[in-house]
Q: What sequence folds into this?
């Protein structure tokens, strides 16, 4: 009885869809300080604010259980959830876990999933305080909802980037994307082999970056100790190009980033070459990096560099200048967001 | 590479599974006042507490899109999420919505889903403050995470029922269960009919109870105005038998409920008779009622009755006495939880 004709979601894209669904939502509570449009919602608690974010992972789209160990999946699910709190410069404290469980999933598999979630929670000082389980006719589905706290004046929004601010990232990019490609290739090659022995030698770093991304809480702690407050920040989940454009759109500014300053790991370049993929595409559009992208005022340049924890890849410009990638020979290319729209 | 042999989840049941997964979870934050085991988690905010709960609905298990209008589904998803906050005697304030969207779902369908969510939110004074969308290879999946606030001393846990307390419910039971059976019957009967005209005449109330359950915020407001604080409370989602046993287990008590006091709507009885289902089974084990089951001290009997909003169906006893259904001829039958374990 429901319509099956109409507008495909791919015509709007994920961002367009969210904008459409949330554009007319009313506000009943004064404590709802923000609506959709940042990594996490901000709820007023007086001097402090509560940060709230939810993240769903579905089997076959976000993970493939034929090669994704459940322990790592649990770990990654928590890191993804918690990262959205970190990207607001908040302290993650609690999560709740909703699971849709298909018949093929055994209790022991869920033990492993929970072991991974627990490891991540222990590392990040986060408590699992509740959850929900329901049956699923098909694949495993995991929704992690994370809450955290921050002093209101410490919260970093996507809207705060200003002209001349420096653009920083917390690690090299594209490694997770190449890790995923490696896993997919070995799965394809070994599809009909009785005792498959996938060839991962030399590329273990890429697998780890895809299967077990680390939350960069330590970088935020270090920035805080140095008295450096980012002016804007976002979790790098959709790829540098898309996420930088999000910052620029929210902050109504442009950006120039320099190709030779974008760190790409040796393993990333090597596998990309082997698989005839441009490593720059992996770094710009791969996604799933789960690093932090943030901006700091120009006068913090020395202090930020001294930390040795981040790379400065460019600076913020006026909106009219666009979002530009500068090649080594000085040419400027407008960055398109190729990410995630499916 | 993941195990497919092991313990089936049905061997443990939903409650057993959650107990197993959460039994050894550590606590890193003093603000995590409770772990799993109630309708919502309780987070310390000083004088007040934050209530946090998550609820996942999966297509084919929790709803069938061939007869479940998306507008109603959105409404029901919000009511289910918010009910867990109400069942702690809290005030729901914000929700975040995570959607897993299959390719057959069009943008217009999501508009309808959001329209229903928005209607429920407007009625309940709740804001949608964020969300996540991801693709889903198969069915639609909805996770609603709700937060609310309560003064600490107002929070009602499942653990507070005491001997002699009265057992109250906020409406008749079994109607949603029969509504579901009616929808399933008409779907079956009209499977191969070109222009199906399902026969719902006379049973509209049952459909409404299943498709569009109401949150009983008004009852809680009335209790508060009368100065009546429930001693224990739970959302009636798994059926009276199962949920009453949850209260008794958490409160380490027994219960006696009286069959002739359990309200069953006329339409429920009529359809049950037509379909050769025992209406008492529908009321005890049907589930999805989404009413509130709570206990109040014996001395509040008159005040509670005066409200005219609840039915008193029995009282709390000592643990040794068990959880007993008393038939009209005075016989006592031990209540088993048949609910929801799949």
A:
């Amino acid at each position: 009885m429901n319509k099956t004709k109409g507008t495909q979601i791919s015509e709007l894209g994920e961002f367009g869809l969210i904008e459409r669904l949330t554009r007319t939502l009313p506000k009943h509570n004064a404590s709802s300080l923000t609506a959709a449009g940042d990594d996490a919602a901000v709820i007023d608690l007086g001097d402090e604010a509560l940060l709230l974010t939810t993240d769903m992972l579905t089997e076959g789209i976000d993970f493939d259980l034929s090669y994704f160990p459940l322990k790592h999946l649990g770990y990654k699910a928590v890191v993804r959830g918690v990262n959205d709190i970190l990207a607001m410069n908040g302290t993650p404290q609690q999560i709740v876990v909703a699971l849709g469980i298909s018949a093929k999933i055994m209790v022991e598999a869920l033990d492993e999933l929970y072991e991974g979630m627990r490891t991540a929670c222990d590392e990040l000082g986060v408590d699992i305080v509740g959850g929900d389980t329901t049956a699923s006719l098909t694949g495993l589905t995991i929704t992690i909802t994370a809450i955290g706290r921050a002093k209101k004046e410490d919260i970093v929004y996507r809207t705060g980037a200003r002209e001349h601010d420096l653009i920083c990232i917390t690690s090299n990019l594209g490694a997770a994307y190449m890790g995923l490609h490696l896993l997919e290739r070995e799965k394809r090659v070994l599809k009909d082999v009785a005792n498959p022995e996938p060839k991962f030698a030399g590329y273990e770093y890429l697998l780890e970056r895809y299967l077990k991304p680390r939350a960069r809480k330590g970088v935020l702690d270090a920035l805080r100790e140095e008295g450096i407050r980012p002016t804007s920040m976002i979790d790098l989940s959709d790829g540098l190009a898309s996420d930088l454009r999000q910052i620029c759109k929210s902050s109504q500014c442009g950006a120039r980033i320099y190709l030779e300053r974008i760190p790409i790991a040796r393993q990333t370049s090597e596998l990309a070459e082997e698989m005839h993929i441009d490593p720059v595409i992996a770094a710009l559009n791969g996604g799933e990096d789960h690093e932090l992208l943030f901006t700091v005022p120009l006068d913090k340049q020395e202090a930020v560099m001294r930390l040795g924890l981040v790379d400065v890849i460019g600076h913020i410009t006026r909106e009219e200048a666009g979002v530009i990638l500068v090649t080594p020979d000085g040419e400027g290319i407008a960055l398109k967001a190729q990410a995630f729209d499916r």
Chain A has ten helices and twelve strands. Chain A touches chain B through 88 residues (CB under 8 Å). The mean pLDDT of chain A is 93.
